[in-house]
Amino acid sequence: MTNPGTVSASQSANNAINPDGDGSGATKPPWLRVKAPQRERIGAVADLLLDLKLNTVCQEASCPNIGECFAGGTATFLIMGPGCTRACPYCDIDFDKSVRALDASEPERLGEAVARLGLRHVVITSVNRDDLADGGASQFVACIEQVRQRSPLTTIELLIPDFCGNWDALAAVMAGAPEVLNHNIETVPRLYRQARPQGIYARSLELLQRVRQHWPRTYTKSGLMAGLGERDDEILAVMADLRRHQVDIVTIGQYLSPGPRHLPVNRFVTPEQFDSFRDHGERELGFLQVVSTPLTRSSYHAGEVQRLMKEFPR
């Protein structure tokens, strides 16, 4: 779910719209049941994205919030896709390890969409592009430039991959001065080999800390899924790690398996436990914001960053 006037990137694709199951046979509890989106609720934004030939995480990842977000004039921009060079077993985005040229017109079309939707805050994410020397950093930069040119008052959030630890690529992206830099930690370190085999927990933490240290005016953000087999204390430990690495904003949401070939849901975390994660993160650890609900995805309430920027200016 997102705020009106915001284009958001969902937490790495892990959702299904099926109102009764999670995609792998498990039955959802009542707090996770959502209505399937109706055409009249999603049509306007979907038509614009189709017209401009833009990919969205909302559609590629079958996000359960698509009806609400599209009805509010919001969507997810997914650049350099739709195929991803990594095959994380929780993710519903197609795997494609082939070498592919970047679409030079994509940044201009994205900038046009932001202008036509009149967005106050935009979030831009991407698939992993390990086939590219810079991991696609140049495409992020081009998208920032087009948004700035067409919508100079729009604040920008980037949800980036780890660039395989290429810190020059990170520096190139940060030269565009996004207001928020988001990189999802995804899960607890014990489950990385199972859920995120090409990711490195320490590398993701280092990326986030580098942003905060070298570009201190940018707000840093990360997100993780609950329900993959982690314990509550492990989620709290990850939150503590993120705060030690100077992350400002955290999102936590329920993992929903896309289908039987993906990792199954290990447990459904209650709304009360999500509330507990939020309270601990904000009151005990000192995050500027913790968004923690069963249906939270990584850019849920993304537009609230403008409030945070006023309350905690840099």
Mean pLDDT: 85
Tell me the radius of gyration: 18 Å
What share of residues are in beta strands?
5-15%
Helix content: 25-40%
Outline: globular
Could you characterize the architecture of this molecule?
By secondary structure, the chain is an alpha/beta fold. The chain has one domain: Aldolase class I (TIM Barrel). 35% of the residues lie in helices and 12% in strands. It contains 11 helices and 8 strands. Strands 1, 2, 3, 4, 5, 6, 7 and 8 form an 8-stranded parallel sheet that branches. β4 (155-159), α6 and β5 form a beta-alpha-beta unit. The longest helix is centred in the C-terminal third of the chain and has 15 residues, at 271-285. The protein is globular. Residues 6-20 have low confidence and may be disordered.
Give the structure's gist in a few sentences.
The chain has 314 residues and is an alpha/beta fold.
List the helices and strands and how they pair.
Blueprint: E1 6-7, H1 39-51, H2 57-60, H3 66-71, E2 77-79, H4 106-117, E3 121-126, H5 137-150, E4 155-159, H6 167-174, E5 180-182, H7 192-195, H8 201-214, E6 219-226, H9 232-244, E7 249-254, H10 271-285, E8 289-292, H11 305-311
Parallel strand pairs: 1-3, 2-3, 3-4, 4-5, 5-6, 6-7, 7-8
Name its key features:
11 helices; 314 residues; 8 strands; 8-stranded parallel sheet; TIM Barrel; alpha/beta; single chain
